[in-house]
Amino acid sequence: MLGWEGIEKRKFERIFIRIPVICEFGDPQARTVSPLTAVSGDISTGGIYLEMDSILPLKTELNIRFQLPHSDKSISARIRVAFLETIANNNFGIGASFLEISDEDRQAIALLVGRLDISKLLKVAIDKRASDVHFLAEQPMVLRINGELEFLDTQIMHANEIAQLVFSLMNKEQIRAFGRDKEVDFGIQFDIKTRFRVNVHQQRGFVEAALRLIESKDFSFDELRIPPVVQDLARNKDGLILITGPTGAGKTTTISAMIGLINKERKAVIITLERPIEYIHPNIKSVVKQREVGVDTNSFSQALKSSLRQDPNVIVIGEMDDLETIKTALIAAEAGYLVIGTFHAPNVIQSIDRLVSMFPIENRRQMLGQLSNCLRGVVAQLLIPAKGKKERLLACEILIATDAVKRIIRKDELFQLTMVMQSGASHKMQLMTDVVRKLLEDGEIETETAMFFSEEFSKYAI
């Protein structure tokens, strides 16, 4: 399986495939042959993994028969049990190698494995510099490149083949979790440079998947075009920093750059809470502990409470999407920790309003007061297609929590924040409208793009 430690080096490429397998187990003493029914887990040209309700001793030899999907080809082979594991009560996993199999049958398995080799498809996405990959039932693979969807001229993915493709990326616990919850998130390391964040889900009863490509390279602030003021925010010793924006706006990449800066400049304990882990951070000056929700902990709120007892200096929260997590984050920021969190909101004002609106209406004033005490800044991000749509440019609306900003938040006069950001250049604040205008004036984006991201540019349509 692919995992965080990298691609497991195997002699034979495997695919996940669920097909019934007839096993014939001979008892030489009784001179009888006992038929057993099993279900395959994965298969390669070198062996097969079986799930059955009987346990077989190591080195047991038996004959098996099964039918390949979308084929009238029947495979017969003799196998030897190489390892055993308990899956659940009275259910066992058996890994076996092929002892005897015809060249024709081995070639049929090789063709199936080659057709359902997901690594070849992911390599296409990497070569095309896609940001996202979609596996859709009865459709070819779809890529998102520079924000635009591209339907590839590749083979149609049959519904059952998508399950086989994506399950080959998953371990048994993740497959069981998907069977229980009908969706699962995890991450894989494809090669030394590239990782994928994977979401497997059902749509109209079909298994489908969306994968986000993440380059493991440690990008600098300059390469990412992150405003220098974000570096200043990362150098705070305490308080709350919000990185907001829609899905796919580069929030995780910005936070990764902030963690990298702290890691290089401070001796600190940095605890990240993520789902899934995307960028791996080695210990440089800091100790970086990366915890994955669903693997290392059950929830963000539970992990956040626990992290306060782990001697942190910096706490990074991948998703502040529930009341308990937000409440604990505010307490931690007020208690002297630097808390960096992401939140889904399109701009600075809505980020603050939506965050506080997570609490009961009668607590709004209290929460605004608490937020004003600990807030250090808000960065609302968008990724905007560049001219020619060959890349996307980072655009940031930035609010710095000056005394004036804190007063406005306390008084619940959030509409005034627009004017403060507009006149707050001395504090390195900026409005998204002004950033988009600058990109347009510099010739980096098209007029239509500016109009799409800001209504104020409708005059350019004349």
Main features:
single chain, disordered C terminus, 6-stranded antiparallel β-barrel, 3 domains, Thrombin, subunit H, Beta-Lactamase, 462 residues, disordered N terminus, alpha+beta
Describe the structure.
- By secondary structure, the protein is α+β, with helices and mostly antiparallel strands.
- The chain has three domains: 98 residues, predicted glycosyltransferase like domains (Thrombin, subunit H), CATH 2.40.10; 98 residues, Beta-Lactamase, CATH 3.30.450.90; 210 residues, 3-Layer(aba) Sandwich (Rossmann fold).
- The protein contains 15 helices and 22 strands.
- The strands form four sheets. The chain has a seven-stranded mixed β-sheet, with helices on both faces. A six-stranded antiparallel beta barrel has the order 4-5-6-9-8-7.
- Helix 8 runs parallel beside helix 9 and helix 11 packs antiparallel against helix 12.
- The longest helix has 15 residues.
- 38% of the residues are buried.
Structure summary:
With 462 residues, the chain is α+β, with helices and mostly antiparallel strands.
- What CATH architecture label of the largest domain applies? 3-Layer(aba) Sandwich
State the CATH superfamily name of the largest domain.
P-loop containing nucleotide triphosphate hydrolases
- Rounded mean pLDDT score: 88
Count of DSSP-assigned helices: 15
The share of residues in helices is 25-40%
CATH topology of the largest domain: Rossmann fold
Q: Could you say which structural class the secondary elements and strand pairing correspond to?
A: alpha+beta
| Overall number of domains | 3
State the major sheet: 7 strands, mixed
Poorly predicted runs of 5 or more residues = 1-11, 458-462
Tally of DSSP β-strands: 22
CATH hierarchy, class of the largest domain: Alpha Beta
Q: What general outline do the C-alpha atoms trace?
A: elongated
State the separation between the terminal residues, measured CA to CA: 56 Å
Oligomer: single chain
The Cα radius of gyration reads 27 Å
Q: Could you tell me the strand content as a percent range? A: 25-35%
